[in-house]
Amino acid sequence: MHTLMVDFAHRSYSIYIGYNTLSKLTLSDNNQRHTQFVLITNQTIANLHQATLLSYLSNHKIQTIIIQEGENWKNLDTVSNIIDQLMTMQCDRHTTLIALGGGVIGDITGFVASCYRRGIRFIQIPTTLLAQVDASIGGKTGVNHPKGKNMIGTFYQPYQVIIDLKWLDTLPDPEYISGLAEIIKYGLIGDVHFYHWLSTNISALMNRDQTVLMEAVYKSCQYKANITASDEYDTGAREMLNFGHTIGHALETITKYQDMLHGEAVSIGMVFAMKLSLKIYDMPQQNLTDLIHLLRQAKLPTDVPKNIDLSVLLSILFQDKKVLDKQLRFVLLKKIGQAVVIPISSDMVHALLSEKAI
Ligand SMILES: NC(=O)c1ccc[n+]([C@@H]2O[C@H](COP(=O)([O-])OP(=O)(O)OC[C@H]3O[C@@H](n4cnc5c(N)ncnc54)[C@H](O)[C@@H]3O)[C@@H](O)[C@H]2O)c1
Predict the structure, then answer these.
(1) Atom of ligand 1 at shortest distance to CA of 110?
(2) Which H helix or E strand runs over 65?
(3) How far apart are CA 70 and CA 136, in angstroms?
(4) Closest ligand 1 atom to the C-alpha of 105?
(5) Domain(s) of CATH 3.40.50.1970: residues in the chain
(6) Which fold has domain 173-353?
(7) Res. 37: pLDDT tops 80
(8) What residues are in contact with ligand 1 under a 6 Å CB criterion?
(9) What percent of the chain shows pLDDT beyond 90?
(10) I want to staple 329 with a disulfide (CB 3.0 to 4.6 A). Which of 88, 110, 304, 322 is the partner?
């Protein structure tokens, strides 16, 4: 098992990564103030994993709130519904919420924890690969508004993050592969050795080899934890995590979050960002070829789908959070392992969007 400390001064917390990490779950504090615990999950995850979790917590009374499944339910109605149930359960300021699920459950639970009675404790138990390497770490919580994704939210750190790779045994392949895109991203933006290691071990990773998976998740969590601890409120270094997300988010918006998973959209976005990097910095063409090869081995897409209207895609790019003074800004690579954010003209973006990936 690996343990990481996320350094937020008095709000620092541990992330446990490995198999059978549930033994690290700490519900009660020394002075026994925290005595009420509410598990938040959806029916699919409850059917698969609730019994296992509860077997570790047999000394505690755990109440459960089941919410509707899917991104469509990541909204204020669900938040309000959860808060109604917490009130009915007479939860006080010493209640602890436990998020068991993917990024949707984690984001909603964290948001409720940050607002209910002006903030109560919550624990992240992520069950998708994407949530394990990304969403559960860093303290971004929130829900969607009809006019925009993640428009309502807070920065609020969990009390603990328990990453048990055993949960992934039941995760469908597309969801698993979607998480791999974020893992590859960490190598590209921050660690050339990790990137080469991923290229060497991609087959084992696709086969969910336990040792390789553990190393990949650990390295990813380490990178995300370090970068978020250095920039908790997303005003600087954390922007690098957006590599591949400028085009990725626009593709998700244009396809209304129906046709592609987040990691698939990011994969296409990373190829695009690599092409831009080649144009602007003196990087070898081989870097692009290698990246496309790696992503295809991971069964991730590399081309903007043919049915996407490029001018609509370009207009959506201007809603990106990195846009400054109406100027598009992209996270690019100066070299593998070193990312920068720079302004890019929309003409250049349009020209490159029209090119096909090799
Ligand atoms: N807070 C952050 O920093 C952050 C970062 C990245 C993404 N996110 C958010 O995360 C969300 C996406 O998260 P996600 O990719 O985990 O998707 P998700 O939470 O929607 O989960 C995907 C599907 O997998 C199912 N599932 C979860 N665990 C399972 C398991 N072990 N076995 C079988 N099925 C399982 C879920 O019920 C769901 O149907 C988005 O809302 C995104 O905005 C947040």
Answers:
(1) 1
(2) strand 62-67
(3) 17
(4) 19
(5) 2-169
(6) Dehydroquinate synthase-like, alpha domain (1.20.1090)
(7) yes
(8) 42, 44-45, 48, 69, 71, 74, 101-105, 107, 127-128, 130-131, 134-135, 138, 140, 150, 167, 170-171, 175, 178, 262
(9) 86
(10) 322
* C-alpha neighbours within 13 Å on the C-beta side of residue 4: 24
Which atom of ligand 1 is the closest one to the Cα of 167? Answer: 31
CA torsion, ordered 58, 64, 66, 71, to nearest 10 deg: -80
pLDDT of 86 higher than 70 = yes
- Asked if 17 and 6 touch (Cβ cutoff 8 Å), the reply is no
Q: How far is CA 46 from CA 10, 173, 174, 213, 317, in A?
A: 33, 19, 20, 24, 38
- In this structure, the residue with its CA closest to atom 7 of ligand 1 is 135
* Closest C-alpha residue for ligand 1 atom 33: 171
C-alpha to C-alpha distance for 249 and 337, rounded to whole angstroms: 22
Nearest CA to ligand 1 atom 38: 70
Contacts of 118 (CB under 8 A, 6+ apart): 93
Q: Are 283 and 277 in contact (CB under 8 A)?
A: yes
Coil, strand or helix at 110 = helix
Pocket test for ligand 1, best of 107, 176, 177, 217 (most atoms within 8 A of CB): 107
Point out the ligand 1 atom lying closest to the alpha carbon of residue 263.
Answer: 15
> pLDDT digits over 308-334, tens only?
999 999 999 988 888 888 899 999 999
The token duo for 340 is: 């920068």
Return the ligand 1 atom nearest residue 49 CA.
31
2-169, what's its fold?
Rossmann fold (3.40.50)
What is the value of pTM for the model shown? 0.96
Q: Where in the chain is the domain with CATH 1.20.1090.10?
A: 173-353
Q: Is 319 exposed, middle or buried (0-12, 13-18, 19+ CB in 10 A)?
A: exposed
Between CA 275 and CA 303 the distance in angstroms is 12
